[in-house]
Design a protein that fits this description.
Layout (H helix, E strand, L loop, with lengths): L5 H11 L1 E2 L8 E2 L27 E7 L4 H14 L5 E7 L2 H14 L6 E5 L3 H6 L7 H4 L11 H5 L2 E2 L2 E2 L2 E2 L3 E8 H7 L11 H13 L3 E3 L4 H11 L16 H15 L10 H6 L3 E7 L3 H7 L3 E4 L11 E4 L1 E4 L8 H16 L2 H5 L13 H4 L13 E2 L6 H16 L5 H19 L1
Parallel strand pairs: 3-4, 3-5, 10-11, 13-15
Antiparallel strand pairs: 1-2, 5-14, 6-7, 8-14, 9-11, 9-12, 9-13
Helix pairs in contact: 1-3, 1-17, 16-17
Amino acid sequence: MKRKNVLAGLLTGAMLATVVGCGSGQATEVSDEAVPTAGDLDEAAEEVPTVEPGKKGTIEFWTVFTGADGTSMQAMVDAYNATNPDYTVNHRAMEANDLYLKMPLAIQSGEDVPDVCINHVERVPLFEENGYLEDYTPYLADSEVSAENYNPKAWQMTELDGGHYGIPLDVHSYILYANMDLYEKYGNGVLDDGLLTWDEIKSVGDACVADDIIPIGMSWLRVKFLSSYAQLGGKLSSDGETPDFNNDNALKVLNTWNELYDAGYTHKDGDDPWQLFLAGKMLFCPEGIWMYNDIKEAGLNAKMLDYPVFDTNSVGNWTSSHQFVIPKNDNRDDEKTQAVLDFINFMGNHSLDWAKAGQCPAHVSIKDVAEFQDMPQAFLADENDELKIYDYKYYGYAVESLDVVLGDVLFERMTAQEALDKAVQETKDKIEMGE
């Protein structure tokens, strides 16, 4: 196993990271004092739930669902446990940064290793390379879990080194919300073809600004950058190893932001764009599909569309996938691992509750559910080539480095070239520290 200085890399990554969850478009910088260390992880004051064991025991299930989505996940787990399985499932939710520290530490120590975890798909390649994940391949033949039952792109992303290391729960995208009441007044037909270009945003900008309406919001900048950069064919690394995203395509994305900001078409530094959108003060606002419940609660007449494009022939939403992974554990026998697969299969076949949480389940059975077809995110279930799921194994390092600089670019405290050079260098430094 390639575990050189893995703990040092994980802890360094946590110190330099920003905490951005799927439930929030806002990034919050973490101070050094707030970063957990190997010695104090066990002191976290979190409540660990317990369930009555089945006749053969429990499956320990760790997830990153700490918000409203956690309630939905717990309801799905409860529904599984109500089927009286041999192994009941004990669901433990924690912040993503905590899980990405605690899971490797548990595997290395051999103590309290969970039986199944949720990982973002971008994290899986490096965890697999470090030897932390179980290969599903030996167990799939005796399971109802199979590739044809899942979104093909989300499934393919965890086929690594001749094995298979993740089963997708969902594909969750960062898309565009449009206030349709404001659009009726200011939109001038720019959505007639179902897509919004950056030039079209500029074309309606002056009319919005004249009435104190903000044309577009700009938060969670890492995914905004990645969405546009991927549309232009950009990659975080050309060779899969060395980061090299300081290039002309990346500059085009950031220069477009500066043009919008200079024209007064974005919110001001310090404003909360999502709250402005919910308050009816903003025409367009990119955000995650998982934020749709806020739209419903606000009673906003809003539509969900693909993320803005440079060219209508090149559509692409930043998309991740929550994946079920099995952490390495020599003390887990094959029978229990097979029980984990049974649980995962149940979750796939009962995806409607996950869709109600604003997500787009990866199990293809969801497409046949009429209630899902009426949900605003349903159009994403048929998008495959358009999905931009990043498979760079050092993705975590790259986006942490981008988080540090992108706000300074948007609000012109740093040039685009300076920011990209700095982010690439910091990514290289993190890779070196982690090896």
